[in-house]
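COMPLEX REQUEST
Ligand: heme C
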Amino acid sequence: MARNIISSLCLVLLILISGVSSVRFAWAQEEPQALAERAINLLSYIAVDYADAVAEREVRDPRLYRQLQRQADMAEELLQQLPDKPGRTQLAGALRDLNRSIEQRDSADNVRRRANAAADRLAALYQLPRSPAEMLPPAKEAEAIYTERCAHCHGPRGTPGNAKGSDLRNRERMARFSLYDLYNTLDPARDDAHGHAIDGDLSSRERWALAVLVAGFSAPAEMPEATLAEKYPALVGLPGIAVTRPSELPVDAAAALGWWRANPDYTRRLQHPIVRAAGLIQLAQTSYRAGDPTESYHQLMLALREGFAPARLGLEERNSALASRLDQQWLDLRRAILDEAPTNEVIEKFQRLQAGVLRAREVLQPAPERGPYGWAALLFALALALGGLLWKGLRRRSRR
Ligand code: HEC
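STATUS: Structure written out below.
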């Protein structure tokens, strides 16, 4: 009798262990990038949905509240599955703080800020490319797919009616998602809400086009004034347009981004070529750090051809020394990538070139008044500097 109990206990234990370990195993097999994207997806839902679950320290929707708690736990666990790196411990601390905030029914603003900040740090730490390689596809590319695979749940133009999808026209809610967050909900392997509800595979380009289309459902009808593109240059180009959440911006910038991200074709024309060059160099650097020198080289050449070349003449007129110095820096960087120079050398050249291009941007479009334009430029520069610091920290650790 006792032996029977013991052996059946053992059996149960065995099943449990094998169950748990197969889950672990399935996770462990996923690429770090997939794990990080999944965690970011969970965090973006927490940021967006929390306001519906808790108001004035009261739980208004217990089912949603429990779901958010589970999602926060899962994000913590996913982080533990990711390879250790300098910075992971602090990030784990930030996720624990987020969990505690949710437990204490903290304000929606605090929870949203914590969740978004953790998602951004995670993306930086694991060097996720969070925007398409070159440009955003137009919404019309996705119209047929939307009708075929999405409309039966979300309604023909984003209003679900009696169907089971969420309301994609809710402007306040949709403004809490970046375009990348929307893109991220469209991969069945990353997104629990969709799971396998979306038929078949979607290519990365199709997902970006769908994100643009969906962003259009809640976009303001009116085109923003062109001067806003000068005021917020980082928001009309990649990666800013893809990774920024409108809800985190001043009112005029939020409305403008809401429209721009739904109309990327038009937005591209608003960009000064040198701003485009700066954005593309940043993308190239991200690809390089993510271990894809071929893509990186391609983006770098695009930055040269479509960004620097059209701006060079104007720069030559205003500051010819800077123009020649930049010529040399492009050359040096190209050669370093082609010759497979050591990573830290290449990164250093990237940073020198980026600094030069940012300087050229100042020379070419002096800010009319330092106010709000400086605000966006400052954010942009800060993000770049942070990336640089992070990288330096990594190198220092790995050399020890
Ligand atoms: C089986 C029904 C179903 C199908 C098919 C479906 N969705 Fe969804 N989708 C949902 C539900 C339910 C949610 C809400 C998840 C949540 O809020 O937790 C959602 C969430 C989203 C979100 C995130 C925004 C939000 O409100 O949460 C986006 C974006 C989205 N869907 C777009 C699409 C697109 C694009 C397609 C087609 C490729 C699609 N969905 C297909 C049911 C569906």
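REMARKS: The first helix runs from residue 2 to 29. DSSP finds 19 helices and two strands in the chain.
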